[in-house]
């Protein structure tokens, strides 16, 4: 057994401790294991609990996949004990401390990799561990970055960094054209991250690390954004593999229900039974990811817009968001379903009753919606979400904007950008109210769904890219399949 194990390609996965990065990286790790690669996932105890059942099931089915724990340096970074995931952050100061904590993994990770019984042949680490590139070089193994977003957003980021077209603008609301892209993309200064901040400094470290890494893995597929995949690889000059949508790795019901949080498995049945009673394409799904915190007035505006829209809805809200108007749930019983904290999103989007998705344009949610053929109402808040919105509404033309115009601040700042009730109602009517444009968006979304599913099947573009990547790694370490 030992000699056979030594002949296997051994890949280590080190995901950033945030749902938008953790969930797709676990899917990618499972994809590698399903292709005969020995996989070790490195994470902290609290984060491991989110997917441990799934990994245990894979191991029982014969996949060579396991989890190895590293303590999270909460106290050293000035975080409360047990704060191990970005979704646990509640203030701006905690956000900065969280990213500082990620740098504190460097020495423990080096020690762990050096003490392995079976050597690491490569490490695939999240983008917010830029120091892993230097560590991998020191250990003599390739380092791959998991990007966690679209080719489109990386191309926009590169062009803005390279040409800085927004710096000469007098007002944050003045528009500018992003230079040197395949399409004419217009943004405003208020939709671009601040250049003088701790987060901006981290992004610059990420960019430099990306340049020196062995390559970048994208949770995307070529047919979704071909011009931008080509631009990233040929014009920017980065080596990259598009191997998504990785959510489609989850084929059976249990995988989809547990994806990202084992604790919701008992609650999925009621949600799906509720959807079963609704007409096809009639339900609006509303979810803003795991870290967004809205103001009380914004929550009231969302609630009132949903109530007056006339469309059934599922709305995912955080447990601490108590400002939903009194009597709202009672008045909308049967028409609306409130889910607290975590929902089986892939199952919901895949349900035939769901006809639209109000999303913050995080890349996971965006791609899961594409994979399900569900058009979107886009409500970006921070990070690269405004860029993803442009991909959805202008390039793919499978969504309408709710009208968010500026960054709301990063995680936990509690000042999500105000969008008026009437603007929410207008966007809902555009998407869910019928009409020619709504039908065209739905038709285009259905076409992309079919392309996504073909991409991950044997012979598809993403399937082939993953095959080529694994073969390249085997050749690099001279291992046989």
Brief description of this entry?
The protein has 20 helices and 15 strands. With 481 residues, it is of the alpha/beta class.
Notable traits:
481 residues; alpha/beta; 6-stranded parallel beta sheet; Rossmann fold; 7-stranded parallel beta sheet
Order of strands in the sheet with the most strands? 3-2-1-4-5-8-9
Spans of at least 5 consecutive residues with low confidence: none
Helix-and-strand structural type: alpha/beta
CATH architecture of the largest domain: 3-Layer(aba) Sandwich
Q: What is the rounded Rg?
A: 22 Å
What's the CATH class label of the largest domain?
Alpha Beta
- Count the beta strands: 15
Number of domains: 2
CATH level-4 homologous superfamily of the largest domain: Glycogen Phosphorylase B
Give the terminus-to-terminus CA distance.
16 Å
Output the number of helix runs: 20
Helix content: 40-55%
- What gross morphology would you assign? globular
Estimate the strand proportion: 5-15%
As for the CATH topology of the largest domain, it is Rossmann fold
User: What's the pLDDT, averaged over the residues?
Assistant: 91
Report the biggest beta sheet as strand number plus sense, adding barrel if it closes: 7 strands, parallel
């Amino acid at each position: 057994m030992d000699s056979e194990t030594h002949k296997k390609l051994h890949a280590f996965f080190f995901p950033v401790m945030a749902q938008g990065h953790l969930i797709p990286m676990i899917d990618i790790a499972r994809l590698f294991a399903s292709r005969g690669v020995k996989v070790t996932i490195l994470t902290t105890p609290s984060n491991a609990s989110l997917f441990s059942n799934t990994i245990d099931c894979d191991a029982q089915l014969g996949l060579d996949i396991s989890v190895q724990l590293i303590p999270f340096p909460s106290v050293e970074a000035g975080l409360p004990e047990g704060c191990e995931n970005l979704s646990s952050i509640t203030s701006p100061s905690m956000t900065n401390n969280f990213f500082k904590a990620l740098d504190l993994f460097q020495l423990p990770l080096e020690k762990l990799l050096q003490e392995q019984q079976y050597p690491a042949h490569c490490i695939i680490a999240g983008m917010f561990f830029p120091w892993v590139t230097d560590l991998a070089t020191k250990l003599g193994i390739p380092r791959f970055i998991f990007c966690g977003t679209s080719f489109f957003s990386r191309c926009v980021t590169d062009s803005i960094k390279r040409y800085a077209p927004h710096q000469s603008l007098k007002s944050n609301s003045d528009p500018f054209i992003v230079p040197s892209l395949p399409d004419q993309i217009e943004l405003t200064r208020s939709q671009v991250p601040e250049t003088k901040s701790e987060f901006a400094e981290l992004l610059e470290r990420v960019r430099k690390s990306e340049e020196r890494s062995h390559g970048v893995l994208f949770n995307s597929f070529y047919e979704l954004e071909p011009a931008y995949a080509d631009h990233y690889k040929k014009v920017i000059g980065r080596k990259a593999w598009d191997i998504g949508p990785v959510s489609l790795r989850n084929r059976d019901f249990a995988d989809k229900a547990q994806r990202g949080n084992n604790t919701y498995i008992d609650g999925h049945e009621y949600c799906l039974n509720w959807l079963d009673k609704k007409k096809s394409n009639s339900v609006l799904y509303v979810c803003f990811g795991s870290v967004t915190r809205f103001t009380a007035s914004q929550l009231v505006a969302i609630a009132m817009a949903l109530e007056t829209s006339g469309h059934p809805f599922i709305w995912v809200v955080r447990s601490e968001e108590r400002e939903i108007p009194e009597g709202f749930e009672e008045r909308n019983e049967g028409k609306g379903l409130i889910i607290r904290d975590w929902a089986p999103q892939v199952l919901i989007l895949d349900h035939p009753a769901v006809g639209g998705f109000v999303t913050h344009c995080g890349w996971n949610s965006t791609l899961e919606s594409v994979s399900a053929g569900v058009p979107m109402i886009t409500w970006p808040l921070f990070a690269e979400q405004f860029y993803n919105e442009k991909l959805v509404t202008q390039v793919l033309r499978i969504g309408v904007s709710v009208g968010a115009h500026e960054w709301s601040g990063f995680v936990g700042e509690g000042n999500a950008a105000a969008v008026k009730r009437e603007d929410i109602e207008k966007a809902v009517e555009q998407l869910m109210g019928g009409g020619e444009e709504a039908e065209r968006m739905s038709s285009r979304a259905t076409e992309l769904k079919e392309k996504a599913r073909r991409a991950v099947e044997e012979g598809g573009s993403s399937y082939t890219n993953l095959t080529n990547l694994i073969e390249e790694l085997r050749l690099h370490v001279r291992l046989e399949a």
